[in-house]
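Aim 2 progress update. The chain analyzed this quarter is reproduced below.
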Amino acid sequence: MTMTAIRFLGASLLAAATLAAGGCSSIRESRGFIADPTLTQSVQPGIDNKQSVQAALGHPSFESQFGQPTWYYVSSLNERKPFSRPRIGTHSVLAIEFDAAGNVASVERSGIDKVVYLSPDGDRTPTLGRERGFFEDLFGNIGAVGAPGAQGPGGPGGP
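Predicted structure tokens:
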């Protein structure tokens, strides 16, 4: 082999190794509200109102439907390595509660410590009541038609 071929082969191997290493890096995805610490720290109870909060932070991720009017700004940063499930890296919730006049009554910040991880148990949802099999479902109504207590044409409200 010539010196030029060896250099070309070395450069090709270096480029392939760089591409392979880049494929193993984790992917970071921002979800929800993108929190700016300066803006979120600027919201103060007794000073701000709904209009000033919306001007500073934008529309909330969601609003409370019951009780005191509360706006929630939810943000997460997910990290995912190749061939694995995403994991929550950082998570924050900014809850801004308003009084009846629309002024900020309180500001609460929470993080990943309040996140609940749910792991479903199998692919079936447990329900209360009697478990019926296929044939009970199929033939369960035989004999029930016209039984006492059934509302038929001669029953209440009928002709």
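The first helix runs from residue 3 to 22. Helices lie at 3-22, 37-42, 50-57, 134-139. These observations will guide the mutagenesis experiments scheduled for the next reporting period.
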